Amino acid sequence: MQREHEFALQSFEPVVTDHSKVLILGSMPGTASLSAGEYYAHPRNAFWPILFEYFGETASKDYGQRLKLIRNHGLALWDVCHRCRREGSLDTAIRYPELNDIDSLICTYGIGTVLCNGQKAAVLLRRRMPAVPVIVLPSTSPALTMPFREKCEIWHSALDRAFSDKVDVILAGTEWRQN
């Protein structure tokens, strides 16, 4: 019999540079990512294909190249949860979340916009609302059965807005700004 404490998980360190302007937040890495020690490692997760397409670069399975894409294009990457308990990979199974210090990262690096990868990241983030615009996007997880092309269009539009500095308040297509 497995006990609840056996499912205590810890997220990764943020991927961020002094040039990061847009922070992409997931909820908590899935089991494939935790096993690989890489963000968005599940082979059917649409995250990396969406970003490589947006920036007009050839998709790569090499994690170093993936991180280079993040760093070279003004992005930062992290998760809302620092630690949690969860059986499996589904966001709905997250229990007892301890949150990362998102505000400190935003202030330290001058992040201008946050993109939430999925509703769970947004729900968790609301507990520590940052003082920057937030855009909530459909999850890139294969658990969300939205067609790839539709996910791409929504994500690409949000990236355009985030990099244009013209983000007001919306949610999946939604954003909000703390007053």
List the helices and strands and how they pair.
Blueprint: E1 8-10, E2 22-26, H1 31-36, H2 47-54, H3 63-72, E3 75-79, E4 81-85, E5 95-99, H4 102-109, E6 113-117, H5 119-125, E7 134-137, H6 148-164, E8 174-176
Parallel strand pairs: 2-3, 2-6, 6-7
Antiparallel strand pairs: 1-4, 4-5, 7-8
Helix pairs in contact: 2-6
Question: Care to describe what's here?
Answer:
This protein is α/β, with parallel strands linked by helices. The protein has one domain (4-176): Uracil-DNA glycosylase-like domain (Uracil-DNA Glycosylase, subunit E), CATH 3.40.470.10. Helices cover 31% and strands 20% of the residues. The chain has helices at residues 31-36, 47-54, 63-72, 102-109, 119-125, 148-164, and strands at residues 8-10, 22-26, 75-79, 81-85, 95-99, 113-117, 134-137, 174-176. The protein has a five-stranded mixed β-sheet. It has a three-stranded antiparallel β-sheet with strand order 1-4-5. Helix 2 (47-54) crosses helix 6 (148-164). The N and C termini lie far apart (48 Å). 36% of the residues are buried. Residues 169-179 have low confidence and may be disordered.
In short:
By secondary structure, the protein is α/β, with parallel strands linked by helices. It has six helices and eight strands, in the order E-E-H-H-H-E-E-E-H-E-H-E-H-E. The protein is 31% helix and 20% strand.
